[in-house]
Request: fold
Amino acid sequence: MLNLFNTILEDIAAEPLHLEPQRFGLVTACDGGLLEACGLSVPVGAMCRVSHGRNVTLQAEVIGFRNGRTMMMLLGDSVMLRPGARVWPEGHPGLLPVGEAYLGRAVDGEGLPIDNGGPIHARSEWPAGGVRTGALDRAPVRHAFDTGVRALNALTTFGTG
Reply:
């Protein structure tokens, strides 16, 4: 009987203890790779972590809202995902890690290395949509340049400034 409890106690001891309060939501529906969660207040484009059994999590990206629920696209397999699974917001919404650590590296769509070169430690973040400047704050166009495509040159003038 004690052996049964020893394995459970070892599993509990292996889990990190987080005492700070965290906001989370619950999965209410799953249709293929589309998840619905309630109780989350995150913007479109935010990445979330979905609990998926013991010590296993999946990634999901917020793609919209419907009837007070958050719609997410699951980045992984939905096998064994249950209603009531917890969903936590992760990272900073709309910001991507950037830095010289990415130079010369091969990464996947999530920015994780695929070249067996070890983890990437980026220290800075940049908005996914870039930084927009006003039209009057930009330098004026000084020189037109040839694109090499006559149709583009005739219909649109490209320039540098």
Observations:
- The beta strands are 25-31, 34-38, 47-51, 57-66, 69-75, 86-90, 95-98, 124-127, 143-145, 158-160.
